[in-house]
Amino acid sequence: MALSAKAKQALLGPLNKNNPILVQVLGICSALAVTSKLEPSLVMAIAVTIVTAFGNVIISLLRKTIPNRIRIIVQLVVVAALVTIVSEVLKAFAYDVNKQLSVFVGLIVTNCILMGRLEAFALGNGPWPSFLDGIGNGLGYGWILVTVGFFRELLGSGTLLGYKVIPQAAYSAGYENNGLMMLAPMALILVAVIIWVHRSKNKDLQEGTN
Amino acid sequence: MDAISLIVRSIFVDNMIFAYFLGMCSYLAVSKNVKTAFGLGIAVTFVLVLTLPINYMLENYVLKAGALSWLGPQLATVDLSVFSLLIFIAVIASFTQLVEMVVEKFSPALYNSLGIFLPLIAVNCAILGGSLFMQQREFANVGMATAYGFGSGIGWMLAIVGMAAIREKLEYSHVPKPLKGLGITFIITALMAIGFMSFSGINI
Question: Which residue from A29, A122, B92, B197 could staple onto A130, CB 3.0 to 4.6 Å apart?
């Protein structure tokens, strides 16, 4: 199916120029604490994408019937219901990952990406563009999460998805895992580095000139 | 004694921002000036202190498996914990509404400078995070839950006020252009977090 220009923009914009984390500064809250390993990062990225996409669709369908004053509560209820479903599914099929993510699955509810996109996009657009926007933003959020998780696991424990990647020979030659990578602050530093690279390439996004 | 230890731990060791990155959105957006940051910090602490005991009681007398047994033995098997997210967020959203009305009435200046971030306290991860951690850690009584809420709120306020102070000074320094604004804020937060890690292991 051919996508119209607008739909394409809704889907692909958030991956780069309009990235929720790098540019819109949304959704950092629940993002970083789960990135010490690649697997929980992947699961988290998928969960957020699903919730954003379907939350966008539902709010977009309801947008003409929600009274303006109570819209935040309606949005929260819709999102909380979706997150509850995701969390029950995770408990049933991926119990170990669910344990690792602990409260952060529940915290998807308060992920600013959701509220931000619901407010900014779903309230003013039809269900289909909203769905694409949700997928796009979920993926834009996801690739940052997965990149950070990838480097933290690779450098911090020398594994990827639990498999050993750094050969034993390297350890024998004196290579050591960087324990600092496993600490929480390194997630922030990695995101800062991604922002640095991203903004060096997109000069129009740089803040201020003074 | 336990309560004091819990407060100190939640301010310095389990700091909402530096250990769990909760509430980062408003933290990044509002930490440009100390006064506004302080106001938001107070509001967050207030909502945390009020919502945690309420959610604690809801959790223990309504939601948990067997929590309804005080209504009658036939209800001892009811487990409503699936709904905890929905209930918690509803309590938080209504309290945020309350705080918003109070601030608008008594301090219009603060109300205007906080702007959109006041209603967004409802979706501040630190608040829901507080309730979810409370659920996970199974505190002994309401007092402990309140102490945890108070400590977390103060910790959050400490972080955002400290950050705001640093950012005010940072205006005058030469940061590499692509790092300006968001990037350098992340790096400073990380450095502050590493600093706060030196508190870990404290026991009072």
Answer: A122
Select the residue of A33, A81, A115 nearest B123 (Cβ to Cβ).
A115
Please list the residues that pair with A160 across neighbouring strands: A163
What residue type is B152 in one-letter code? S
- Residue whose entry in the numeric block shows the structure tokens 């205006």: B171
Residue B170 in contact with partner chain A when CB distance is under 8 A? no
Instruction: Please give the C-alpha separations between residue A69 and each of A65, A66, A81, in angstroms, as whole numbers.
Output: 12, 8, 21
DSSP symbol at B59: I
Q: What residues 120-179 of chain A have any CB closer than 8 A to a CB of chain B?
A: none
Q: Does the beta-carbon distance from B21 to A29 stay under 8 Å?
A: yes
CB-based contact, B188 to chain A, within 8 Å:
no
Instruction: Report DSSP letters for B130-169, one per residue.
Output: HHHHHHHHT-SSHHHHHHHHHHHHHHHHHHHHHHHHHHHH
Q: Looking at A60-69, A159-168, A190-199, which range is the least confident one?
A: A159-168
The answer to whether the predicted template modeling score (pTM) of the entire model surpasses 0.90 is: no
pLDDT digit string, tens, across residues B94-132: 888 888 888 888 888 878 877 666 777 766 778 888 888
> What percent of chain B stands above pLDDT 90?
3
Three state DSSP letters for B62-131: HHCCCHHHHHCHHHCCCCCHHHHHHHHHHHHHHHHHHHHHHHHHHCHHHHHHHHHHCHHHHHCHHHHHHH
**Under DSSP, is residue A164 helix (H, G, I), strand (E, B) or coil?**
strand
Residues A16, A17, A20, CA angle at the centre, nearest 5°? Answer: 75
- Whose tokens are 């819209």? That residue is A71
Min CA distance, A86 vs chain B (Å)? 11
In tens, the pLDDT along A160-181 reads 777 777 777 777 777 777 777 7
> Can you name the residues that pair with A85 across neighbouring β-strands?
none
Which residue from B133, B183, B193 is facing A195, i.e. has the nearest CB? B183
Q: How far apart are CA A89 and CA B181, in angstroms?
A: 39
Choose the closest CB to B19 out of A81, A184, A195: A184
Judging contacts by C-beta atoms under 8 Å, the chain B residues touching residue A197 are: 178
